[in-house]
Design brief:
mainly alpha, two-stranded antiparallel ribbon
Length: 135
């Protein structure tokens, strides 16, 4: 059902990965702002994450598939976070350089909401299994 709490969490993850990633900046190097639009691999990973979350919203009849897609999406966001950390450490000035964009936090927000969605999906699955035992 689309009115479940995990659908709301997944929708927030879609907004975080899909919309906010296009609007925020990643880095500022020598006064030049680098956003998601300028970095195609990051944009593709973010849009892939948003697409997985969006597909997962409509798989509410198959909770196991929805759960697996959530886990794959979390792994994708951890890869994206690792790429951000690698890029952050290789920037001029190192990690102490204060010119970082808010876009670096988007995978963390997405991971949190995906984990909450997976927790709610697991809760629904155990509820359905406990009701099936009573029949």
């Amino acid at each position: 059902m689309l009115q479940r709490i995990q659908s709301l969490y997944l929708l927030i993850a879609v907004v975080c990965s899909g919309i906010f990633s296009s609007l925020t900046d990643l880095f500022v190097i020598n006064g030049v702002t680098i956003g998601m639009i300028d970095s195609i691999p990051y944009l593709l990973l973010f849009e892939g994450s948003a697409l997985l979350s969006f597909i997962s919203i409509f798989l509410f009849k198959s909770r196991q598939t929805q759960f697996v897609l959530g886990r794959l999406n979390i792994i994708l966001n951890f890869i994206l976070l690792g790429l951000f950390v690698f890029r952050l450490l290789s920037l001029p000035g190192g990690p102490a350089n204060p010119e970082k964009g808010i876009g670096l936090l988007l995978p963390i927000f997405s991971i949190v909401f995906l984990a909450l969605a997976n927790k709610a999906i697991k809760k629904d699955e155990t509820l359905v299994k406990s009701v099936d035992r009573l029949r």
